[in-house]
Amino acid sequence: MKRRLLLLLVFALLLLTGGVALTLWRSYGDPRSTPFLQWARGNNATREALIVTEREACPGAPFILPADGFIGLLYGDPRGPYSASSPHQGIDIFSNDAPGRVPVYAAYDGYVTRESNWKSSLIIRVPDDPLQPGREIWLYYTHMADQDGNDFIVDALPAGTHEQFVQQGTLLGYTGDYNGNSPRTIWVHLHFSIVLGNGRGGYLNELEFANTIDPSPYLMRPVSYACAPRPTTCTPDPGCPAGAGS
Ligand SMILES: [Zn+2]
Questions:
Q1: In-domain check, residue 57
Q2: Ligand 1 center from residue 8 Cα (angstroms)
Q3: What spacing in Å lies between the alpha carbon of 93 and ligand 1's midpoint?
Q4: What tens digit of pLDDT does each residue of 146-190 get?
Q5: Is 179 among the domain residues?
Q6: pLDDT tens digits, one per residue of 14-68
Q7: For 116, which of 20, 36, 131, 160 could close a Cys bridge (C-beta 3.0–4.6 Å)?
Q8: How many Å lie between the centroid of ligand 1 and the Cα of residue 207?
Q9: What is the total count of domains within the chain?
Q10: CA 13 to ligand 1 center in whole angstroms
């Protein structure tokens, strides 16, 4: 009986490690994961090489990049804590620096709201979508605090801020590694996403992928997972060629 239990345990262990190995093998074999693995395992020079430093908008782009860094987790990304059924709602721009150091800027002119219970987040209302005039969109920023929830958002935008106008390029704060009450530690980064309005002057739930849109045409950079492994540099055609990403 004991022996049977032992065999069962060994079998379960093999199954488990086999599963992990398979996942790893898949990531290694997938060119979309190469930069991500390089960032995870690389030294300072490797990381610096992956960083985009660009304070001007790409040619033809309405938005500037909200922070310099490595655009590692893409829009629609199923990796990390996400999945194919619940993909990433925005882009994660990782900092090769300590929390509270890398500046975060307004990607476009708009009106900042910071809900009174938001420690590390704010959202900017853009009344007129530059790519779809007449539509209201919202730019959601989060993780701008340290692990204990001490925020790195500028003093001019305290919790409870409502409809404070900011111009494109205004300093909003600095990247951080706050992850709410989750015990999972995260790399220092900014999460940035474009959230649709609810048609009543508010925004839809920013955590639902279906309520968000692809930032690629706003940045004129291919930042959608469907386009990977295209580099996230400026391009006149940030869309994905047919069949890409499959
Ligand atoms: Zn994110």
A1: yes
A2: 39
A3: 8
A4: 999 999 999 999 999 999 999 999 999 999 999 998 888 899 999
A5: yes
A6: 555 444 444 444 555 678 888 888 999 989 999 999 999 999 999 999 999 999 9
A7: 160
A8: 10
A9: 1
A10: 32
Domain of 118 in residue numbering reads as: 28-227
Q: In this structure, is residue 144 part of a structural domain?
A: yes
Looking at residue 185, its amino acid is T
Q: Render 7-72 in DSSP notation, one character per residue.
A: HHHHHHHHHHHHHHHHHHHHHHH-GGGHHHHHHHH--HHHHHHH-B---SPPTT-SSPPSS-BEEE
Q: How far, in Å, is the centroid of ligand 1 from the Cα of 77?
A: 9
Task: Report the C-alpha gap between 145 and 43 in whole angstroms.
Answer: 25
Count of residues for the chain? 246
pLDDT above 90 coverage of the chain, percent: 76
Please say if the pLDDT value at position 2 is more than 90: no
pTM higher than 0.85, yes or no?
yes
User: Is 15 a member of any domain?
Assistant: no
Which CATH number characterizes residue 125's domain?
A: 2.70.70.10
